[in-house]
Each structure stands twice: as structure tokens, then as C-alpha cells.
Amino acid sequence: MREVESEPMPISAESLLAVARNYWRSDHAFDGRLERSPETERFQALWEEALERMGEWHMLMDELQAALPRFLIGNATATCDACFRCSVYMEREPLRSNQGNEQLTRRQVVVGCVSILAPVYTVHGAQYDYRGEERIADRALFEPLPPEMRAPAEIVARKIEARFGVEAVPREIAETRIPLIVGPREPPDTTLFHALFTGWPERVP
Known about the structure:
There is one protein chain. By secondary structure, this protein is α+β, with helices and mostly antiparallel strands. It has one domain. The protein has six helices and seven strands; from the N terminus they run αααββββββαβαα. Strands 1, 2, 3, 4, 5, 6 and 7 form a seven-stranded mixed beta sheet that branches. A hairpin with a 4-residue loop joins strand 4 and strand 5 (120-131). The radius of gyration is 18 Å and the shape is globular.
């Protein structure tokens, strides 16, 4: 999270890619080396600055819990990502099993992300299938979200905007492919979403 400037950066694929290039590389030149790349140095310094405002992030989660009392609210932030993340866990629901006695359930999660690289955010979903307590499948969900996820997603979006003054990244811009390596994502699969937020959108604790 960063202080919002008086002249906000216009949201465009070009401007966001220019920012992302400061923190992600397009090659593996520093793999296996003891020294960190300049991009990694900048990324970690930015996280050190951002973590000083973790209290404000926890305040957001308190607001979400008050606004969504029927759901479990979690902090899914990880400093390998480029964002603060919160999660709204919906109740597990049973799934039909093709093998009779298996107990299969599904849980959906609304995920709010506030980038530390630029004053932007996004809200997406994650879906998990379980056999008993074992997670057997996961996938990320993007707009349009399933109907049952839309109301909590709208609340997450409103609360993020009100507290941090950030702007949502349109899906068509978030899906722009970029020539950078972000965690497990490499070109041609890397998108601006991965660079600004997380390379693991389907994974929430």
C-alpha cells in the first residue's frame, strides 16, 4: 500500500507495465546467485515500507468482518506477492460424488488484493474442492464471478476503495500479457495481474 498521490497514475497497460518492470525481471540471470537482482532489492525495500502500514490493513479486515458477519475473514498476505490480500470464506457446500460414499465438498473464497506497486486493486475468487479434509482441486475465478460471490465481492471492493483510495484494474488490462517472470509465471503466460498482485491467484490459505 502506498500513499495516494494528488495526481493519480492513469490506469493503462503501458503505465502499469512500466511500473512492473522495476520489480520483476524478464530473464533468469540471477537464479542460483548469492546476490539479489536490483529488481528484487527494490521489491523487498517496498515491502519493508508497506509493512509499516499493516495496522491499516488489519483495520480493513475488521471492517469487512463487521459488514460480512456470516463469513470468516482472513489475512492472506504473503511478501512473495506484490499485494496485500484478504479473504472472505464462504461455507462449504456438498458436491455430488460419482463414487457413492465419498464426501466431496466445495468452498468458495472472495479475495481482495491491494497492490504495493501501484495505487490499484482487484477482487477475484478462488474455488476449492475437498475430499473429506483433503483439498483435491483449486482454481481462480475472475469476472464475472458466480452470483453467490458477487454481493460480498462488491462489499470488499467498496471497503478497499474507501479506505485506501485505490482504483480497480479493469479485467482487460489485468489480463494483458507481459514479458516478465513473476514467481511460477513466465512469458507468454505472465499477465499484469500476476505482476501487480500474485502469481498464485488460486492459492489462499
